[in-house]
Design a protein that fits this description.
8 strands; 6-stranded parallel beta sheet; two-stranded antiparallel sheet; alpha/beta
């Protein structure tokens, strides 16, 4: 049986199949780790794919409320995945790896302290969280963002890292000058190394 579970959280308008190949690449780097890449619970408003929350009419002011409203379906999705992989209740052996909107949900889970996870990786994300952060102690995070990102500015991850550090979250950051709104091969390798460290601690 696998000793840990990595759950990928895709971006808006995508699906679980989008990030699943990263798990295939990480399999040799992270032995005894299972990988899951579920679809978000809601159909994408603007076409094919899925979303964790709707972008219709979203603003910086109302985004935190959108994320908070999406928590119940998000939590149910994670619980279902964990049960299917034999990890029910074993949050301390789970790492969340998000991209874009998936990163927003992963960072919300971290900031709200809902689970005692092993770690969180957020690619091209932002922290859409109102109020004081209440993270679990010693839950590490890695934030990776391309500085050529035209969808979510890389400064969002810089800001998120600063807020998380103020809340005593152990945070590592990696900013890639030539990377757009995507996961680079180098970023994926750094994330794999980070996850391996999380699972050793």
């Amino acid at each position: 049986m696998a000793k840990a579970l990595v759950i990928f959280l895709h971006g808006v308008g995508s699906n679980g199949d989008d990030l699943a190949p990263i798990g295939d690449h990480w399999a040799t780097l992270l032995p005894d780790v299972a990988f899951a890449s579920p679809d978000a619970p809601d159909r994408f408003d603007a076409g094919f794919g899925y979303q964790w929350f709707s972008l219709n009419g979203v603003t910086p002011e109302n985004r935190p409320a959108r994320v908070q409203a999406a928590r119940a379906a998000f939590d149910a999705t994670l619980s279902d995945i964990m049960t299917r992989h034999g990890f029910a209740g074993r949050w301390q052996e789970v790492v969340l790896v998000g991209f874009s909107q998936g990163s927003i949900m992963a960072l919300d889970a971290l900031a709200s302290g809902r689970y005692p996870l092993a770690g969180v990786v957020a690619f091209s994300g932002r922290l859409a969280f109102d109020g004081a952060l209440t993270p679990r102690p010693y839950l590490p995070a890695m934030l990776i963002h391309g500085q050529a990102d035209e969808v979510i500015p890389w400064q969002e991850s810089e800001s998120a890292a600063a807020r998380l550090k103020q809340a005593a979250v152990p945070v590592e950051t990696r900013f890639e000058p030539a990377t757009g709104h995507t996961i680079s091969a180098q970023g994926a390798m750094h994330a794999a190394a980070f996850i391996a460290q999380c699972l050793q601690d």
